[in-house]
Amino acid sequence: MGRNEDKAAWEEFFLPGLWMLIGRLGAAGSSCLAAASLRPFSSSSAMAKSKFEYVRSFETDDTCLRNCYIVVRLDGRNFHKFAEQHQFAKPNDDRALGLMSKSASSVMEGLEDITIAYGQSDEFSFVFKRTTTWFKRRASKLLTHVASQFSSSYVFYWKEFFGEQPLLYPPGFDGRVVLYPTGRNLRDYLSWRQADCHINNLYNTVFWTLIQKGGLTTTQAEDRLKGTLASDKNEILFSEFDINYNNESALHRKGTTLIWEKRDETVSKRIKRPNEEEKQVPVTRSRRKVEAYHCDIIGDQFWEEHPDVLQDDT
């Protein structure tokens, strides 16, 4: 029963009987009921309670521990197949990486308490500052909002990066929520993800070079790389294909780091003062904008240059 229907039932069935009863109590009772009947009807009153509301007690409290960084990490679901069916370039497709970064920026712009995000390949990690109160710090709310915003942005911006190439079916992303109590823990987490980016990209670069330039099959390339170390892979690239891995794109080797930065923008504004002609006047204003970096975040330099990223870690 809706709120209006509840009110109608109250007025039609309950009020007349109560007036009759309280009429016997005298003027005092009538005054009390008159005052009560003038109060706005509220769905939270006892009259509006439903016998089915007990089901709310089945909900689990998933509030994230206070004073911890909240990390929401998304991973593409079955993206190996997705990349093949959409003909992604190997070993890296700059269109796909650009689309991932654009989608991540969209998430940050919608949730300004995300202080930093890091992504590589088909994954992105979003870090909420320790003091965030978004969605009352409920893990399920944070995760579903990030995942839905990212997925919808990926579809929405697809044509911006892939042009007329059709999106054959909706992409899927799964996620998890992890808490880190200190800035050191958080930096170690981000370092782990960037180290993973380096390991995977080095392997994929050598693997696809052996296939595309060396003429090997996928099976032969896998056999060739079994048991090799990073130094062995670098040697294959350099000695056989004259490729210095350190000269490869920083986007591919380092991944993408997104942070908020203040930028001064100068715009032209038309102003008319009394007894003067209208004229254009330059106006400078500061705005926060999401900026992308393709740099090392394992060492100290990045953090020293951007101390505000962890400024609430006291």
Question: What does the model show?
Answer:
It is globular and about 75 Å long. A hairpin with a 7-residue loop joins strand 5 and strand 6. The chain is α+β, with helices and mostly antiparallel strands and 314 residues long. Helix 1 runs antiparallel to helix 2, helix 4 packs across helix 5 and helix 7 packs across helix 8. The longest helix has 30 residues. A six-stranded antiparallel beta sheet has the order 4-1-3-2-5-6, sandwiched between helices. The protein is built from eleven helices and six strands.
Q: Secondary structure elements and their pairing?
A:
Elements: H1 3-23, H2 27-38, E1 69-76, H3 79-85, H4 94-110, E2 114-120, E3 123-128, H5 139-156, H6 158-162, E4 173-180, H7 183-212, H8 218-225, H9 230-241, H10 250-254, E5 256-271, E6 279-293, H11 301-305
Antiparallel strand pairs: 1-3, 1-4, 2-3, 2-5, 5-6
In short:
Helices cover 45% and strands 19% of the residues. It is α+β, with helices and mostly antiparallel strands and 314 residues long.
Keywords:
314 residues; alpha+beta; 11 helices; 6-stranded antiparallel beta sheet
CA radius of gyration is: 30 Å
User: How much helix, percentage-wise, in residues?
Assistant: 40-55%
- Span of the ends, CA to CA: 51 Å
Specify the biggest β-sheet.
6 strands, antiparallel
Which residues form runs of ≥5 with pLDDT under 50? 32-38
Give the strand line-up of the largest sheet. 4-1-3-2-5-6
Structural class call reads alpha+beta
Number of helices: 11
Encode the helix/strand succession as letters. Answer: HHEHHEEHHEHHHHEEH
- Find the count of extended strands (DSSP E, 2+ residues): 6
Taken as a percent bin, the fraction of beta residues is: 15-25%
What is the 3D form? globular
Write down the overall mean pLDDT.
87
